[in-house]
Amino acid sequence: MISNEKAKFGEFGGQYVPEAVMQALIELENEFNRAKNDEQFLEEYHYYLREYDGRPTPLYYAENLTRTLGGAKIYLKREDLNHTGAHKINNTLGQVLLAKRMGKKRIIAETGAGQHGVATATVAALFGMECEIFMGAEDVQRQRLNVFRMELLGAKVRSVTSGSSTLKDAVNEAIKDWVEHIDNTFYLIGSAVGPHPYPLMVREFQKVIGEEAREQILQKEGRLPDYVLACVGGGSNAIGIFYPFVQDTEVGLIGVEAAGKGLDTNKHAATFNRGTVGIIHGMKTYLLQSPDGEITEPYSVAAGLDYPGVGPEHSYLKDIGRAKYESATDEEALAAFELLSRVEGIIPALESSHALAYAVKLAPKLSKDQIIIVNLSGRGDKDVQQVAKMKGIEEI
Amino acid sequence: MENKNTRIQKTFEEINHEGRKVLIAYITAGYPSLESLSLIVKALEDGGANMVQVGIPFLDPVGDAPVVQTLSKKAIENGFTVEKFFQSLSKLREETTLPLILRAYYTTIFGYGEDRFVQSCKEASVDAVVVPDLPLEENAILKSKLDAIDVPLVPIVVPAPQERIKAIVASGGGLVYLMMGPAENETAFVSQLNDFAKQVKQITNLPLCLGIELGDPILAKKLTKDADNIDGILVGDVLMETMQRTSDHGEFGQLTDELSRVIEDFSSSLVVRA
User: Fold this and answer.
1) Residue A207: active-site member
2) How far is residue A8's CA from residue A19's CA, in Å, rounded to a whole number?
3) How many other CB atoms are there within 10 angstroms of residue A194's CB atom?
4) Which letter, b or e, does each residue of B55-90 get, where b requires 16 or more Cβ atoms within 10 Å of its Cβ?
5) Burial of B222 (0-12, 13-18, 19+ CB in 10 A)
6) Does residue B220 have a pLDDT over 70?
7) C-alpha A8, offset from chain centre
8) Is the pLDDT of residue A272 over 90?
């Protein structure tokens, strides 16, 4: 028996939240359902995607990388070319327009490393809304540059000291704030996670990636790709590129999660490869947890991947066998980061480098007439300092 | 669902009949230790609590005050497990006749296993279960399992369309917790709460209890005087803050004395008529 079916992907997803939050979710769901079928709303969304964000992003044939790996043809979906440098803004633009439509004046969001916080502060600035970003106190210390960026964009950064002072606590505090200020506040979730309707809504605002990629590959190659690869933390860039290919069963969908220091250490964020089904942030999904359901802290060199859960639609795609979830270690991701920089002149985000790392393994095993699309979800400028430090280069 | 739960029902009937509001004392288990649970409950009973709500520690309690998170964290660091908890609860059941309400997050229940959880509730003779993160949309499965052992799932309602409140109340039993956001001032709060309670009273015979924390006895007194549609109040944060303060600095005996004293302040504020 599956209850609350409209909110679920198979058994996953749902709304495991207090009743006070339900009131807010019901309001949001109703408005989202109206908006997604409203031509005028969609037109406005696509207007900003085009004129402000710079879509469509190219599907670039990475000829040098293809030659280097000596196997399948590799195409890169250039989400790194979005305004603010990653796919995140597709979603924040969609949600801020929804907030505007609902008459909300204040936007709140959680952020881990600060990327979603920056993308949120950006659209809040664009639409003249008050903006408050909840960020774990530890992350505030570690990501001072992004904190300053958000402040520059007019947002207030609230340092969260409850619990373990990390992303999951920032989410908890943001939910509390939302319930207390529901009249004027919109909670803008950054990944395809959380209670219904968020996973569905984020997918709707990210599916533009896959829609474009599908059309572009048909144009360039006259056929669909053999594989689509994307990194998976919460899974928004992955669901965005996967979704329009789900019905094309000949296309292999592969999500790549962070194996950190290795799957057999306790330092990874490999939700599918090492997690079990449980409840986190209002949804049922695979997650890293103790036997009593307490969340355990994830780790990855890529801050955007160290989330202990994963979007519920991915859990569903995994269980029905439509998508596979592999992993890449820190080391493999770093190697791919350097490789792409050197052979293509594109510095990828450390997150996206995990998807690339898997392409490095996969491509040589395939024939030259096969095609892989890698979702290059973000650019790596934000990671350059961290990589230099890891390579022992100080003073940059 | 009819109020099958005789222990809870009887308590409300008796206490309300005496012209008092029912006082539910809420604490998180496992702090300062699981072994101390019985003594803490005894102290609360001595201080005048009519029912006890025991929470299972959980690290991300979105429906609770920060102190619950703090105590939960310490409890878990000290080796708390749900399995050990149920052993303590069974022992507690033998030592007190007060109705026991168990508060657990669905995350915990799911992690422990729903069937196993329900079986443990049965073994510990729990009188009711309240799950703050399991709304109407998701509660059917757990509810059917609890129905089978005659333990009600306590409904939590917030101001919402009447139809929704009706459906929520119909899906649970034992008592109803009312939650409400803050108001401009105390007088407005009490009056809004009473109106809300009146609205809920029209659709259920279950006793209504204020599910948000009352920080001080003076407000409890005001509520007793002016909110006649409320049958009971919940006191938790202030108890847990007391536990945290005294156990950090003193002897365990001091902790239980303090708890008794704090709950007594509330208890003596809840008399409607002498």
Assistant:
1) no
2) 18
3) 28
4) bbbbbbbbbbbbbbbbbbbbbbeeebbbeebbebbe
5) middle
6) yes
7) 19
8) yes
As a whole number, mean pLDDT of residues B181-209 equals 92
A300 and A260 in contact (C-beta within 8 Å)?
A: yes
Match 């229940």 to its residue by tokens: B109
At A280 the three-state DSSP class reads strand
Among residues A110, A132, A326, A351, which one is catalytic?
A110
Are the beta carbons of A393 and A384 closer than 8 angstroms? no
The interface residues of chain B toward chain A in range 145-174, judged by CB-CB distance below 8 A, are 156-158, 160, 168
3-state secondary structure of A294: coil
| Measured distance CA(A106)–CA(A29) in Å, rounded | 18
pLDDT digit string (tens) for A156-212?
999 999 888 888 889 989 998 998 898 999 999 999 999 999 999 999 999 999 999
Q: Which of A73, A77, A88, A382 is catalytic?
A: A88
CB B213 within 8 A of CB B235: yes
Cα–Cα distance, A145 to A157 (Å, whole number): 12
**Mean per-residue pLDDT for A124-145?**
93
Beta strands in chain A (DSSP E): 8-9, 12-13, 59-61, 73-78, 106-111, 130-136, 156-160, 185-187, 227-231, 252-260, 276-280, 283-287, 323-329, 371-376
Provide CB contacts within 8 A for A141, sequence distance 6+: none
Percent share of chain A, pLDDT over 70: 99
Give SS3 for B34: helix
> Which of A7, A168, A179 minimises the CB distance to B60?
A168
Separation of alpha carbons B213 and B219, rounded Å:
11
Across the interface, do B137 and A292 touch by the CB < 8 Å criterion? no
CB A276 within 8 A of CB A287: yes
pLDDT above 80 (res B5) = no
Report the length, in residues, of chain A: 396
Which two tokens mark B1? 């669902």
How is residue B216 written in tokens? 């001080």
Read off φ and ψ for residue B150, nearest 5 degrees: 60, 30
Torsion on CA atoms B180, B183, B189, B194, rounded to nearest 10: -50
Q: Could you give the CA distance from residue A353 to residue A339 in angstroms, rounded to a whole number?
A: 10
CA angle (A290 as vertex; B29, A279 as ends), nearest 5: 85
Per-residue pLDDT tens digits for B54-81? 999 999 888 888 899 999 999 999 999 9
Cα distances (Å, whole numbers) of residue B78 to A348, B61, B81, B88, B259 = 43, 18, 9, 15, 22
* Residue found under tokens 């007060």: B98
Decide if A22 touches B, using CB distance below 8 A: yes
